Amino acid sequence: GPGAPAPVIRIVVDDLAFAAADAVLRPADEHLEPVSPESVQLDRVAGAGFAALRRVQDPLDIGAAVVTAGGDLSAPFVLHLVIRTEDRPTTADAVRRALASAWQRAADWGLARVAAPLVGAGPGQLDPEDAARLLAETWRASAAAGLADASLTVVVQRDAEREALEPLVGGAG
User: Fold this and answer.
1) Phi/psi at 3 (nearest 5 deg)?
2) 39-64: per-residue pLDDT in tens?
3) Considering only CA atoms, which of 122, 131, 124, 171 is closest in space to residue 151?
4) What is the strand order of the sheet 23-28 is part of?
C-alpha cells in the first residue's frame, strides 16, 4: 500500500564479482555466453564449476532470465539475462524484457538484494544513461513489488560514471 517503503537504488563503484548481494545480474546471449566485460569478469571469478552451471540444452529466447548458483562469487545466485542472440542485437526493448524477467525470478526466489552492471550498455549498444534508466524503471515497476527490503545496487567502473548516473536513478534527488 501507500505505506510501503520505496525500493532502494544505489550506484557504487565496485567489482560486481565481489558485490554483497543475494544475486548479481549477468548479461548473456541465447547460450548464456557472456556479452559484456562484466560478464567475462564474473565468469572468471565464479570459477571452473560455473561454466557447467550455466550450460543450456537449447538456445534461450531474447528477454529470458535464468537463475543459477553463483559458484565462487560473493553472491550466492546469478540472474542471467538474455539480451541478444546471434541474429538479434541488443536493443532497449530486449533489455527491458530481460530485466522484467529477472525481477520476476528475483521475486520468485526471494532475492531481495540485487547487484547489477549497466545491462546492455557498451559499444554499439545502449548509452549508459539509457541502461541506468531501464534498470531503475523496471526495478521500481516490478522487483520491489514482491520483496521486503528490496535493494538494487548498480555497479559501475568509475566515479565519473557514478556521478553522471546518480541523478537518473536517485531516490532523493
Assistant:
1) -80, -10
2) 999 999 999 999 999 999 999 999 99
3) 171
4) 8-13, 151-156, 113-116, 23-28, 77-82, 65-69
Q: Are strands 23-28 and 77-82 parallel, antiparallel or unpaired?
A: parallel
What is the residue-wise DSSP string for 87-121? Answer: SS---HHHHHHHHHHHHHHHHHHT--EEEE--TTB
Phi, psi of 25 (to 5 degrees): -85, 140
* DSSP code, position 5: P
The C-alpha cell that represents 89 in the structure block:
542485437
Nearest by Cα to 115 from 63, 152, 167: 152
Write down the pLDDT at residue 59: 96
- Cβ–Cβ under 8 Å, residues 101 and 64: yes
For residue 61, the number of C-alpha atoms closer than 13 Å in the C-beta half-sphere is 4
